Amino acid sequence: MIEAHGLTKYYGETRAVDDLSFTVQPGIVTGFLGPNGSGKSTTMRLILGLDAPTSGTVLVNGKHYREHPAPLHEVGALLEARSVHTGRSAYNHLLALAQTHGIPRRRVLELIDLVGLHEVARKRAGQFSLGMGQRLGIATALLGDPQTFLLDEPVNGLDPEGIHWIRNLLKALAAEGRAVFVSSHLMSEMALTADHLIVIGRGRLIADTSVDEFVRQASGSLVRVRSPQATKLRELVLGPGVTVTSTEPLLLEIGGLTPEQVGETAAAHGIVLHELTPLQASLEEAFMELTRGDVEFRAGDVVPAEAEEAAA
Amino acid sequence: MSSTTPQLSLPRYSGTGRVTQARVALSEWTKLHSLRSTRWSLLVATVLTIGLPMLFAAIVASHWGHMSPRERANRQPLDVALAGVNLSQLAIAVLGVLVITGEYSTGMIRASFTAVPKRLPVLWGKLGIYAAVTFLLMLPSVVIAFFGSQAILGRHHILQISFTHPGVMRAVIGGAVYLVLIAVFALAIGAIVRNTAGGIATFAAIFFVIPPLLNILPTSWNNAISPYLPDAAGRSIFSLTHDAHSLAPWPGFALFCGYAVVAVAAAAILLVRRDT
Question: Strands A29-33 and A196-201, how do they pair?
C-alpha cells in the first residue's frame, strides 16, 4: 500500500510533481499513466526516498521508505532505465543486493531461473539487451518477496513474449493480495493489465479512477444517431446539459443523454432511426483527450514526443 | 487465451532479514571483487609497489661505481624501498574514486540506495572494505619491497639498513598506511564529486598539481604552507628523515588523518542530503 499526500517536487525552478495525492491499494494492479516527462519517474523516486520531496509525504506500508528496517521485504522496485553496474554480472548484481538483507544465494539462483537469465547470469550486464535488463530488474524486485511492487515502465524493450510474461506476473502478484504500482506511457498496455488508473500530466493528478470509469468519463456519454428526420430529433432532444453536433447530414452525435433516452424520445415522436450507437472512446483516445495541454513535449501534431522523463 | 487470473508459480521467500552494517559490508565486498577494474587497479598497485623498488635498487647498484661521494650520500635506502608508493597511490586513488562514481555513472547507486535507503551504511561499507583490501594487499607489498630492494643492494654491500633500525619499521608500515588513507580520501572525493573524471581530476589537483605550483611562491611562503598540504603531511609517515620544513611523522600523520576525516564527513553529509 502506498499513500501519497500533497507530494510536490521542484528541481530548481522546474516543477516536476505538483501536489500529488493518491493511494495504491493492495490486491489490484494500479496503472500510473502519463505522457513522457509528466513526472512518473520522479514520483517513483520520491516513493523510494531516492529524491526528497519539496513538500508533502509519501508512505509505503505505513512508513517512510527510509524508515523500513528491511526495505527489500517491503517493496520490490524496478527502476527506470538501468540501475545496474555495467561491469558486473547479473548474478553478482543480485547477490550484492541480496546480501544487504542476508538473503541467501539459493534465492538469487532461483530468481535468475524464474526470469530466464540462466544462460547469461555470468555475463557482464553491460552486454545485456534492454529486455534482458528488464528481466534482471524484475528479479531484483522479487528478491525479498515483498508485499508492494513499484515498477517503472517494465515492458519497455521487451519482446511480445516478455510483455505477456510481465502482464501475467503483475496480475498474479495482485491476485495474491499485493499492491502493484506500474507506470507506463502506453495506454494499450494499461488497458490489458491495470484495474485502477492514476493519470498525471505535467506533474498534476488528472484522474484517479478505475479503468472502466476512466474510459466512460473521458468519452462522456456520446450517442450517435442516424435518422432521416435528424433535424426534428435534434430539436426534440436539445435541452440543458445536452449537446448535439453534426458532421454530416442525417447524422447526430448527442452528448448528455443515454442511448435509452434518445431511443425513447424518438419512439415517442414516431421518428425513424437507422442507427443508435453508444460511442466509447478507447483508452488511448480517452488518455489523449485528458492530457491534451498537459503534454510537456509535442512533436507538431503527431504523437507526444519520445522524450526522457524530466530531470534525470 | 484465457482472461482469468494467470497461475504463476512464484518461488516464495519467507526470510525477513534486516539491513545491518555487517551485511552491507559483505555486499560491498561482493561489489568490489566482482569488477574487472578492481582486479586491474589492485594488480597495478601491487606490481608498482614491489617492482619499482626492485628496479631502482638494481639501477642504483649497477651505477654505484660511477657515482660521486656526494651523490652516494644523497641516496637513502628507504627512498628506494618505498619508491613504488609514489606511483601506486595513483592506482589506489583511481580505484577509490571509481568504487563510488562507478555506481553513479551506471545508475547502480539507485539500486544500492533502494536496498539500503539510510545510505550511510553503504558509504561506511565501501570505506571499510576498500581500506581493508588496500591494507591487506599493500602491507605485504611494502614489506616485500623493503626486503627485496635491500637484498639487491646487499649483494653490492651498499645502502644497507636494518628493519629494526629506529623509524624503519614505522616508515615501511607507514607506506601501507599512507596508501590506505589515500584510498579513503579518494573514495570520499568520489562521493562528493559523483563523477569519475571529476573525482580523479580533483584528487590529482590536490596531490600532484598544487604542491609543485607552490614553488612559484616566495620560498618563505612555500616553506610555511607546503608541509601542511595533504600530500606532504601524508608523506611524513613513510619518510625516515625530516628536514626543518617538513612535519614530524606523527603530527604529519595526524594532519593527514584529519584531512581524510573532513573529506569523509563532507561525503557523508552530502550523501544523505542530496537527491540521487
Answer: parallel
